[in-house]
Design goal:
- With 210 residues, the chain is mostly helical.
- It contains twelve helices and no strands.
Length: 210
């Protein structure tokens, strides 16, 4: 039979764990998975400080570290200063260490990487951890479109496009909007992905007037 001291000790540990979880969750902002546009980025950026506090309280919970990294990334998009950019990279490195299974810090790190070959390898990590993600696709696509990507990364992009189109959920409408508002080079690149992943979707997009 456990002694009274052991029972009291276990109760104290459980109480502390519960308080730790509740404290983090009570301060946690209700944000989406990843910012999709400038307006959405502003909402994430506004929550960057609180996300950092939550990540500190909830350490070493990887999901909270990733949310902090994404909020810091959004703040960097809004503020556009060197100090914020450096902080974003450090926050994302910490998140990738605590949550290597989460695609978001890998995507942020890829965007902050200056070396093209290394950027592609980091972007692949975002795909390895989440091969088809409608929330991440716009940023992953734009990052890849600016590169001379290798065959593996192209295959990952083609797979993502094909799977997301099959899943539906409005992705085809979002993708068509991307196709119509993209730059000429991005439109050519997206067209090549669609040609391999879903030629019917490409035919539909190109048959409609812009």
């Amino acid at each position: 039979m456990p002694t009274r001291a052991v029972i009291v000790g276990l109760a104290g540990i459980l109480s502390f764990a519960a308080a730790w979880l509740i404290a983090a969750e009570s301060l946690r902002a209700e944000l989406g998975f990843f910012p999709k546009d400038a307006e959405n980025a502003s909402a994430f950026a506004a929550a960057a400080s609180s996300a950092g506090t939550v990540a500190s309280i909830g350490w070493p919970r990887g999901n909270l570290a990733s949310e902090h990294a994404v909020a810091d990334y959004a703040r960097g998009l809004v503020q556009k200063d060197v100090a914020t950019a450096a902080a974003v990279k450090q926050t994302s490195l910490s998140a990738a260490h605590l949550a290597p299974y989460d695609p978001r810090p890998w995507l942020v790190l890829a965007q902050k990487e200056s070396d093209g070959n290394r950027r592609q390898q980091i972007l692949k990590m975002s795909y390895y951890t989440s091969p088809a993600n409608a929330d991440l696709f716009p940023q992953r696509f734009r990052l890849a479109a600016a590169e001379q990507i290798d065959d593996e990364l192209r295959t990952l992009l083609e797979f993502e496009v094909g799977i997301l189109l099959k899943q539906g959920g409005g992705f085809d409408a979002d993708l068509e909007k991307m196709y119509r508002t993209a730059s000429d080079s991005e439109r050519v690149f997206l067209g090549s992905l669609l040609s391999a992943a879903d030629p019917a979707a490409l035919a539909k997009f190109t048959s409609r007037p812009r």
